[in-house]
Amino acid sequence: MNQQNNNSRLIIQPHDTSQQCFKTKADIEQFVDLVKLAPILIKNVDEAEIISAVINQNEFLTEDDHIDLKLFKQSRKGDNHGTNVPEELVQSYTKYIIPDLSDTNIIDVGLRIGGFFNEAGCFNYSIKILNITEEICKKQKQNIFLLRRLLDCYHKRIYAEAIYCEFKAAEATFISAQSTIKELEKLNSVPNLAGLYTNFSLLYFIRSEYDEV
After folding, report:
1. Is the whole model's pTM more than 0.90, yes or no?
2. 83 and 7 in contact (C-beta within 8 Å)?
3. b vs e for 175-190, b when ≥16 Cβ sit within 10 Å of the residue's Cβ?
4. In the prediction, which pLDDT does 70 show?
5. Which GO molecular function, any one, fits this protein according to its record (predicted)?
6. Measuring CA to CA, which residue among 170, 92, 154 is closest to residue 146?
7. CA–CA distance from 174 to each of 13, 40, 55, 161 (Å)?
8. Phi and psi dihedrals of 15, rounded to 5?
9. Residue 39 and residue 98: Cα distance in Å, rounded?
10. CB of 72 within 8 A of CB of 52?
11. Who contacts 208 (Cβ-Cβ below 8 Å, separation ≥6)?
12. Where are the domains of the chain?
């Protein structure tokens, strides 16, 4: 990033302006840990800007809560130009759809980011990340490991789609999950499906299909 961008503050913009993506300090710490875990996700957004952004959006945080006060003060300098950090993460992750650039670690990062966005209430960003993760999985040579990761992707995504009332997309995810389960059955490697079936039930409940729950 250029000097001007490094001296500007960012504003997190969740999908619903009435609901912040980051509700607690623990949410922020987990988000920062994820960014540190995956260097691929911080090429367009540096750590100081992320922390400054979430502090600006959460009144319960002060400068004393910042993990690096010097970085925080530096990142507060300059004019506020407002950048959507979750969207930056999605865009940075998108390029790893290319098979030559992706590997199992990239898939795991996508699953963790998608799961975090679910917990933070940023369901639209979770869906975006998990859509990319699914595409990355499908571009790899299929094996038990990848099929299980793909099923985990559907597990997380159908939850976000159900809560976000994306029922048509959730139905497609349901079908994909069932297909993946069948593939794992052929390999005698079906994982515990309790969490996935719980999310199926959640979808039925939200759609008022109580007989299916």
Report:
1. no
2. no
3. ebbeebbeebeeeeeb
4. 43
5. ubiquitin-like ligase-substrate adaptor activity
6. 154
7. 29, 30, 37, 10
8. -65, -25
9. 17
10. yes
11. none
12. 3-85, 88-206
Name the residue type at position 56.
N
Cα 149–Cα 154–Cα 156 angle in degrees, nearest 5: 95
Q: How far apart are alpha carbons 190 and 203 in whole angstroms?
A: 22
pLDDT in tens, the chain (213 residues): 444 444 333 333 333 333 445 555 565 566 656 655 544 454 444 444 555 554 454 444 444 444 344 433 443 444 344 556 778 778 878 877 776 655 778 888 889 889 888 888 889 999 999 999 999 999 888 999 999 999 999 999 999 999 999 999 999 999 999 999 999 999 999 999 999 999 999 999 998 887 765
